[in-house]
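User: Need the bound-state model for adenosine-5'-triphosphate:
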Amino acid sequence: MTAALLDVTGLERHFDGVRAVDGVTFQVQPGEVVSIIGPNGSGKTTTLNLVTGTIPAHGGTIALDGARIDHASTVDIAEHGIARTFQNGRVFATLSVADNIEVGIHSQLQAHRPFRRLSHVFLLRWIPLLAELFVAVFGTPAARRERAGIDTVIDLEVDRFEARLGPRRDDPAYTLSYANRRRTEIARALALQPKLLVLDEPTAGMNQSETAEVLAQLLELKAAGQAILLVEHKLDLVMTVSDRVIVMDGGRIIAEGDPQTVRTDPAVIEAYLGRRRESGSGAAAPGSLSEDERSETETKRGDLADSGEEGSA
Ligand SMILES: Nc1ncnc2c1ncn2[C@@H]1O[C@H](COP(=O)(O)OP(=O)(O)OP(=O)(O)O)[C@@H](O)[C@H]1O
Ligand SMILES: [Mg+2]
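Assistant: Bound-state model below.
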């Protein structure tokens, strides 16, 4: 058995009285695509926030490639090899597509960021800052070589979304459509060449054809051996792309297995449909989730439905 790429044990996080993540244990193997699904508020995003160091855990351990990362900073975790996108999408609005992607690899730069390790030492932070300024103003042969490498990475990532991002490489992100901003965010995460790609609802707010495009890109990444931890409400996409599905409810894992097993698990059907029954909107159907029921589980959020000036995609 191969060592797990990501090994999460007994993870805990509460917000005041709410146990948002309550003893969660799971692994992601190298090259594996694992999805976390569950009703709204079940702790999916909080789990991703803990794994990526966005917020600290109140208990449990997280290891990447055998090294503990549960007390590491987000920057260190990114350097260890975890890159993420956010549920509501986050790009720098005034930066171009290319510059947004470049931000993703900034932490990895060597020649442009001499003495970068000293930036962790409070009293010596001025040394890397001055060194970076020197490199920016005068340049060095190593920095010029590194610049060429950065441009290659940006080109590769823009090419991944060629038809969409290619013509918009130098456009500021605020002029992009919503879907293209999300593509830019995924490109920025991939520029890090992460061991584990963490995606929080990458298709939220996207229409059917945009969602299909993202699915095709995820399948391509999977075929290339990219390990992915995905949170997503669109169950058809989840069932198509995932090797394994984890179902959360109330901060706990209530089911886990291959897509087909999870789809027909009574506890999963109850978690999704029990809320409908409680609200008096009908009885749970036996067997697997139907198309209607699955589409009902998709989150409709006003804040995600904005569209940019350039059109639908
Ligand atoms: N920063 C916070 N402060 C207070 N409570 C929070 C915070 N973040 C999450 N919670 C609470 O923790 C619980 C889990 O939230 P989380 O965002 O992880 O759910 P989710 O499964 O991602 O839901 P959704 O599908 O709606 O995105 C919810 O009850 C939520 O209100
Ligand atoms: Mg969420």
